[in-house]
Amino acid sequence: MYCHYCDREAAFEAESDGVTVGLCEDHFRERVQELADSDELEALKERVDVEGPE
Q1: Which Pfam families match (predicted)?
Q2: pTM, whole model, 2 decimals?
């Protein structure tokens, strides 16, 4: 499987509702960083009452 964003070999695969997409390491890191910087992640943390490392 190839990366959804470029022509490199996928290092990771994600599946949702029967659709699978691949991500190379670089694009996987970019997507994770985008999620880490997003307000949605903060809202999710509040919903599930996640605490950081002490």
Answers
A1: DUF6757
A2: 0.65
